[in-house]
Structures are given as structure tokens and as C-alpha cells.
From TrEMBL:
CDD domains: MoaE. This is Molybdopterin synthase catalytic subunit. Heterotetramer of 2 MoaD subunits and 2 MoaE subunits. Also stable as homodimer. The enzyme changes between these two forms during catalysis. InterPro entries: MoaE_sf (IPR036563), Mopterin_biosynth_MoaE (IPR003448). Belongs to the MoaE family. It catalyses: 2 [molybdopterin-synthase sulfur-carrier protein]-C-terminal-Gly-aminoethanethioate + cyclic pyranopterin phosphate + H2O = molybdopterin + 2 [molybdopterin-synthase sulfur-carrier protein]-C-terminal Gly-Gly + 2 H(+). The keyword Transferase applies. GO terms for molecular function: molybdopterin synthase activity.
């Protein structure tokens, strides 16, 4: 399988999920699974006003590429694309897109789930949530400290 169509990017521009998805669709595959992760309004019972994402960009990109190696070692997949947005995001805006193409859907679903879990765990991208009464940094799904 060709790896030269894989891509790993960070951007401050809005994400076009459809256009990103089409970048990983080869003729040899029967399925592309896409995660469209977007900003939700409520987290742990608190209303979120907006988020800010920051990253150590060179390391984040390198870690995304390492994730592709890990995914390829576990799942029969053809292509991977991961794009994460940085900066201020409003409710409903897409923050991350992960697209995985595979000959068969089962591997694409499993790889996509693994990739988002590992991205949140190991890639140096940080999320700060802003509320009416303050803000807090989040670690994956957990708020780690209010300001």
C-alpha cells in the first residue's frame, strides 16, 4: 500500500471535512472512515463559550506521523490523513479530522478509533475551554484546572 498520500497537518483555517476526506480515497479501497471532531457546547455540565487549541507544532506533527506507523502495524489500512486546527474555535466548528482509507471497513473503523484515542493521549496539542465564569485547560476529555 502507498503511504505517500498520507498527510498530517496543523492549521488555523477552518476545516472542510469533505475535501479532507477525498484526499485519502484510493481506488484500491472499499471504505473511508472519517472522524469529524467539533467543539461542543456542554462539557461536564458546564456551558462552553469557545475553545483555544495550542500545540508544540514540530513535535505534534512528528507524533502524528508516529501514530500512522502504529496504526499500520495494527490495522490493514491504506491511507491516513490527520488535520488538527489551532487557535480560537467557536461552538460547532471542526477541531480535528481523521480520515482512514482501507480495503475493508472494519479495519478503517478500528484504526480511526485508535488514532483519535492515541492523538489525545500523546500528541502535544492542548485545549483550553472558556466558560462564562472562567476557563480551564483540558487533558483529552478531562478538565485539569480552572482559572
Amino acid at each position: 500500500m502507498r503511504k505517500d498520500t498520507d498527510f498530517f497537518e496543523l492549521t488555523r483555517e477552518p476545516l472542510d471535512v469533505g475535501a479532507i476526506t477525498r484526499r485519502v480515497v484510493p481506488a484500491t479501497c472499499g471504505a473511508t472512515v472519517v472522524l469529524d471532531g467539533y467543539v461542543r457546547q456542554w462539557t461536564s455540565g458546564k456551558e462552553t463559550l469557545h475553545l483555544i487549541y495550542e500545540a508544540f507544532e514540530p513535535m505534534a506533527l512528528a507524533e502524528m506521523q508516529k501514530l500512522s506507523v502504529g496504526a499500520r502495524g495494527q490495522f490493514e489500512i491504506a491511507h491516513i490523513g490527520i488535520i488538527h486546527r489551532l487557535g480560537k474555535l467557536e461552538i460547532g466548528e471542526t477541531s480535528v479530522v481523521i480520515a482512514v482509507a482501507a480495503p475493508h471497513r472494519k479495519a478503517a473503523f478500528a484504526a480511526c478509533e485508535w488514532l483519535i484515542r492515541e492523538l489525545k493521549r500523546s500528541v502535544p496539542i492542548w485545549k483550553k475551554e472558556f466558560y462564562a465564569d472562567g476557563s480551564a485547560w483540558a487533558d483529552g476529555e478531562n478538565v485539569i484546572g480552572a482559572e
